[in-house]
Amino acid sequence: MQVWCSFNSRPEDEQEKALRPAAVVREEQDTERRFRRIDSRIRSLLVHNKHLPMELLSILEEELCYYFNMDPGMLVVIRQSNSYCRLLVHGICQYLGLHSTSEMCEGETCVFIECKGDKYETPEIGLADYLSR
């Protein structure tokens, strides 16, 4: 009975956290960890920009997940002259655990993206979904 009284006296949000399944808690921790590994300047842009192109973010993220699920060893090259879009690509890559660099390629700036390891795992919650919360 004492345990119940202690639980019942907690704030509602603490009660909800205590009742959630461990898998949900792990998923949220993984998502938060992924988000924190994004460069702080990019993270700030993602959080504070009210005009963030969520559809573009979602499409880029889905395409990268698709390619690296097919072949984690592949090199993806995105030709992008717009520095804002390149910044978004780098943020998505950091969230997804991919390595990205911007380099000049045939007179254009390109983003070269590759998987850091032998295996690629798509996150449970994508960056666009996380930001939409």
List keywords for this structure.
133 residues, alpha+beta, 3-stranded antiparallel beta sheet, 7 helices
Low-confidence stretches: none
Separation, N- and C-terminal Cα atoms: 37 Å
Morphology: elongated
Kindly estimate the percentage of residues that lie in beta strands according to DSSP: 15-25%
Topology:
Layout: H1 2-8, H2 12-19, H3 22-36, H4 40-48, H5 54-70, E1 75-79, H6 83-96, E2 98-105, E3 108-115, H7 127-132
Antiparallel strand pairs: 1-3, 2-3
Describe this structure in words.
It is a single chain. This protein has seven helices and three strands, in the order αααααβαββα. The chain has helices at residues 2-8, 12-19, 22-36, 40-48, 54-70, 83-96, 127-132; strands at residues 75-79, 98-105, 108-115. A three-stranded antiparallel sheet has the order 1-3-2, with helices on one face. α5 (54-70) packs across α6. The radius of gyration is 19 Å and the shape is elongated.
Question: How do you describe this structure in short?
Answer:
Helix content is 57%, strand content 16%.
